[in-house]
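Q: Got a minute? One more chain.
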Amino acid sequence: MSDVRLIDIREEILSDNQELAGKIRRDLGRHGVFMLNLMSSPGAGKTSLILRTLSTLRDRVRIGVIEGDIASSVDAEKVSREGVPAVQLRTGGFCHLDAPMIERALKELDLTDLDCIIIENVGNLVCPAEFDTGSQRRAMILSVPEGDDKPLKYPLMFSVCDALVVNKVDYLGTSDFDLERLRERVCKLNPDIRIFPVSCKTGEGIAEWTGWLAEQVAGARPPA
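A: Always. Here it is, folded:
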């Protein structure tokens, strides 16, 4: 009979993370601040979508941004130049953001002066899907050049998200990407997901995406 004791570190980490994520959500709720966790693979267009969103909603919604990156602060600098409060989290090799990282970033933002916080997670379709950041909603971006088969390869990411932004639809005419086939694959995994075909380059679909986001922000505000 073995005397070896098994300690499942992964389960402990996820449990501790979930507990802190719940606390973050409650704190944000008391301030009436909505937080979105935006995820995608590298190059899908997270920063481009954020910049388009800021441009569209800046007169209606006070937005702050938490940027996650392994090494650089390039994206946070782009956001900051738009006059938007931004915090850069350099993970030093970690492939995702988690609740402790977000808790630390939130201390650098004045929640009384914000309606919405957008988290730009580290570019990855695997790890970020597993870690709750304390956001009220999760969204992901899939770009047309990546292909319509990604729900088959990364089902968890598509399953946990509330919204899917299909970016770079201006490439559809020169690609074998099938938008309807993608819809079928995604909705089998997640029937309630909202899908927004957009082009950050041309602006197509941005109004529909930002309209949905503005609704989420309004829903987080306490009754007058």
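A: The chain is about 40% helix and 20% strand.
Q: Perfect, thanks.
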